[in-house]
Each structure stands twice: as C-alpha cells, then as structure tokens.
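Note to self: keep these together.
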Amino acid sequence: MRRWLLLALLAVNVAHAADFDYQLAPRQIAADTWVVEGRNEDFAFANGGNIVNTAFIVTGAGVVVIDSGPSRAYGEQLRAAIARITEQPVVRVWNTHHHPDHFLGNQAFADAPVHALPQTIADMQQDGNAFTENMYRLNGDAMAGTEMRLPQHAANAGTETLGSHRLTLIALSGHSAADLAIFDHSTGVLFASDLLFHRRAPTTPHADLRHWLASLDVLDGLNARVIVPGHGPVSDNAEPIRQTRAWLTWLSATFTRGAQNGLDMNELTDTVLPAEHAAMAEARAEFVRSIAHLYPQFELDVLERR
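Structure:
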C-alpha cells in the first residue's frame, strides 16, 4: 500500500513539473547564437530555479548547448525552444561547472554527448545528489522528475571548430574549483558562466577569491564583443568584468579588515554596502552568505600570521 501511495505522489509531482512553464524565450545576440536569460533573483518556487543564463549556437554542424538549466523540465523546454528555431540536432552540451542550476537539465539531452571539465565531473559526483535534494526544497514542483545525469565526456582546454564556429574552451577556476569559459572567435561572444555576474551580487559557496580575480584578468584579455554572464543581462561591453571584479575586491578587503580588527561574523553582517554594490540584485543576501562561506578562512589567515 505504501509503495502504491509513493508512486501516486510521484506521478502527481511529475505532472506538476510538466505544467510548470518556464516561459523560455531565446534571444538572438549574434550570428547563429541565442541566449535564454534567467531572472536576476534567488531560487524560489515561483521561478522554478530559472535564475541562470543558458545559451546555444546553431553551428551548421549541429547545435551546441551551453548549460542545461536547473531541472529536467527546464531542459525539456529548452530543447523544445531550440527545435522551434532550427532543425539541426543537438550535437554537444557543455556544463560549465558543478552548480546545480547549470546541469540538472541534462536529462533532456540523453541522446547528446555532455562534456565538462574533469574536476567539474568529480565535484558533481561528490555533491550532485545533495545539490539535487536541496533544489527540490528551494524550487518545489518544478523540480519533479529531476535526477542528476553526469557528463559522459571530459572537456579539455583548447580550440575546436564546429560548423562555421571556432570555439576556444578555457579552463579556469575561482567561482568553483573548475570553471569553463567558452569564447567564439567567429562572433566574438564570450560565454563566461558564473565567473561573471552582471547587476547581481556573485555567489560564493565554493569560491577562491584570489583565483577568481586571476580568471577575470584572462577573460578581460579576450576583448569579447558580447559577454554572456552566468547570471544577469548580456552585455556588449566589459561591464560584467568590471562589476564582478569590483565586488570581489571589495569583499576581500572587507573580510581582511574585519579579521584584522577582530570582528566576529555577526558583527561583520552590520557592514554598510557601498552604493554601487548595494544596487545589485541580492547584494545583502549574498554578502551575508559570503561571510559564512569565506570569512572563517580570513580569520584563520590573520591568526596564523600573528
């Protein structure tokens, strides 16, 4: 009896997920190149986890997808949106890093090869199931039927040509232990994933600020014509790089000064955010989260130097 009840509840949840409309609207930003912009907010039942930017390129030799989104339903709706634009098959999916809003749509691409950096795959294996469970708690029925599907192929840094597009894969780190950026030489579009946030405060659960700032220097050197951040609006200038760098630099200086002055985590939460940073979406919430994520290491570093 209990088994049948569980199966019935699962069927209801899957139906609810099928009913959840992400209202995905791909927008063309360059030749053959579309982006689906997520909401500039935090996870919620109302948005179903749709806070991430995904993208795809219709190369002439098939479609390449950059990140599959936060749920099975999102991935399925993304695939349907691609089919409305082109009859070319999906021939490649890249997961840029191991955070769940970027890869939990992989189930919708079961017939396509999914690639990610080796460290990203290892981190998915370690944390993916816990991430998935947490996404159910944060996003509700939109997640129903979602299970982790790992990439089958390890991506390597370098340049390859797919159809009419010459793409360079850049292996970086800082937002996570392994962050994949993709630069399309044919259009000048940089897909930076969560190494860049635009008009939204960056998230830092697995951040290394020093490595992240070094990665920004690499991205800046590409002189991209169009930048697709992981979160926030697409930009035709370097503003996402400047804005992300300014936040991370301020965060590092604030935490260093707080640790040197002996502030505890609660005292640090009273910090007044500069106007530029306070204007970004989720700024206060992400600042408080970053204290929990990063500040203990800053305190330890100060203690070790004394």
